[in-house]
């Protein structure tokens, strides 16, 4: 995908540039239920999220820390399935574009595409287990704008990149603090929407500070035109401000939001209110880091 195509066609890149600096939020779909997830997504949208990532639960989430692993387990125990996830997205109405974050096996195991069904008729034929097109087709049909697959190496991403291009979806890659040289060039040639800059080595999870690796990574990526958003460990408005000041176009927050959901347990109203307030705090921090004079909200 060329820079010209990305700029012209990417809902995700447009959302980041139009709402710069952007707040990107993550929650796990189906935690604690798909019905609750609907309320939580709407709350984040009201609170100021510019993009919303929805985690499609997978049993071996290698990039996730304990907080999101627990959320994924709760979602799986609640019976969340890929088709239930897509039906949820079908019904969502948000200002913020939506992305799915999941693992490659979920894409490979999804059912046949409309095109395959049309060509095969009612006959049962073996399907290509390595075909990611059915998942991408369904994601586009549901209204998703992009896909993040943490365990997919850029060197093996051509089939997914082609399917995303065919259906108008962005494909976001994670750039680790240690990524450089030819591997970095390969990732940046495949990425669209934004580059997901990993703030620190290890798995996801809220942290008390911003890693020094964040600043180094942003410096290393300055020459690339695609927006850069920093995640892994961001949990407070001050973190968002520092990251934007360092040159990021957006901040990504997940574990801090998943913690709110876990703390409130069943019943979506208190959690939704807390998520909306947290999103507003994080968006204020990001804007403050971008040089915008943002007054603090009045205390009730």
Concise account of the structure shown:
The chain is α/β, with parallel strands linked by helices. It contains 14 helices and nine strands.
Please provide a written account of the structure:
- The protein is built from 14 helices and 9 strands.
- With 300 residues, the chain is of the alpha/beta class.
- The protein has a single domain (2-289), classed as Alpha-Beta Barrel (TIM Barrel), CATH 3.20.20.70.
- Strands 5-4-3-2-1-9-8-7-6 form a 9-stranded parallel beta sheet.
- Helix 12 links the parallel strand 8 (228-231) and strand 9 (250-253).
- Helix 12 (237-245) runs parallel beside helix 14 (268-289).
- The longest helix is centred in the C-terminal third of the chain and has 22 residues, at 268-289.
- The radius of gyration is 18 Å and the shape is globular.
- Keywords: Amino-acid biosynthesis, Aromatic amino acid biosynthesis, Lyase, Tryptophan biosynthesis.
- Belongs to the TrpA family.
- One of its GO terms (cellular component) is cytosol.
Quaternary structure classification: single chain
Q: Bin the strand percentage.
A: 5-15%
The DSSP helix count reads 14
The CATH topology comes to TIM Barrel
- Would you report the number of β strands? 9
Fourth-tier CATH superfamily name: Aldolase class I
Into which percent range does the helicity of residues fall?
A: 40-55%
General shape: globular
**Assigned CATH architecture:** Alpha-Beta Barrel
The average pLDDT is 87
Question: Which sheet architecture does the biggest sheet show?
Answer: 9 strands, parallel
- Which regions contain 5 or more consecutive residues with pLDDT less than 50? 1-7, 122-129, 202-209
Radius of gyration: 18 Å
Q: What strand order characterises the main sheet?
A: 5-4-3-2-1-9-8-7-6
**Please, how many domains?**
1
Quickly name the level 1 CATH class.
Answer: Alpha Beta
Task: Look at the helices and sheets and give the structural class.
Answer: alpha/beta
Order of helices and strands: HHEHEHHEHHHEHEEHEHEHEHH
Distance between the termini: 49 Å
